[in-house]
Amino acid sequence: MYTQSTMATNSDFQFSHDGQFQVSQEMKEAFKDNGFIFLRNLLSQEEVQKLKGALESEDGVMKHVYGRDDGAGRKTKSVLWNQPGSDITGVASRTEKIAGTMEQLLGGEVYHYHSKVIMKDPHTGGAHVWHQDYGYWYLNGCLFPDMGTVWMAVDKATQDNGCLKVVPGSHKLGRIEHGHVGDQAGADLERVELATKQLGLVHCEMEPGDALFFHCNVLHRSDQNNSPNRRWGFLCCYNRASNNPVYEHHHPCYSKLDKVPDSAIMECANLTDTSGKDFFSLSQDFSIKQIDKPEAGK
Q1: What would the pLDDT profile of 172-194 be if each residue is shown by its tens digit?
Q2: CB of 98 within 8 A of CB of 213?
Q3: How far apart are CA 108 and CA 7, in angstroms?
Q4: Residue 161 counted as domain residue
Q5: How crowded is residue 91: how many other Cβ atoms within 10 Å of its Cβ?
Q6: Which of 8, 9, 241, 290 has the least C-beta neighbours within 10 A?
Q7: Residue 55: partners with Cβ closer than 8 Å, 6 or more residues away
Q8: CATH number of residue 155's parent domain
């Protein structure tokens, strides 16, 4: 799983479904040191199957899929929404084991910034270039990097089908300047190369239901999927309540997140009614427009 790095070996943890799970001090320290932790089996196999069925339905979120040019001849496919809604994806994003764990790792109350599904289909899935999420979110008016993402594997994620790659400890570098790569915002590759030489690289291979919690300044990317195996991921992104954006943009400002118990996922009867989710379209992308300005990143 790990390559070039021994820093990240203390970031791998197992979620317990016995109702006794707590975010430990070791998890907090690993997140602080490396910028991420794995929580294996965060979603049970029953939860994965229920979520997968909802995501694959043509009556649900898939009606809002869009693509971005990856700068290498393919498009990355995604669907993104700003408000949780009442369907299973929204319920999942409000659970204690997902939102509550992120609150513990970020050190304070969080709200739902947005969620999305990233799809790499067999032989066609595009790449996501090296970037920090804060490379986008800073331009949206989030003044502090008090933000993070939970990346949950819907399918098995391997190096062959384009799993996530992260640079451990790179959140300590601060925000790196970003520019256009296709339709995406990519980090300065010279700085990325220097960071990987110094800090190493981790291939985030995951089984369905495994999750990666990572800080918004962690450098990460994923390659094209040239394999016969699909790779879908469900992502929930959070912002600290104290970090309310100073600009109006295409993601929400603070509103209190109504967290629910973990059992709500299996109890949820709404699989495909996406009312109120406020889906994103490329024409709304505030951060990409900011990168186009001459003073961006200065």
Answers
A1: 999 999 887 767 778 999 999 99
A2: no
A3: 26
A4: yes
A5: 19
A6: 9
A7: 61, 62, 89, 117, 154, 232, 234
A8: 2.60.120.620
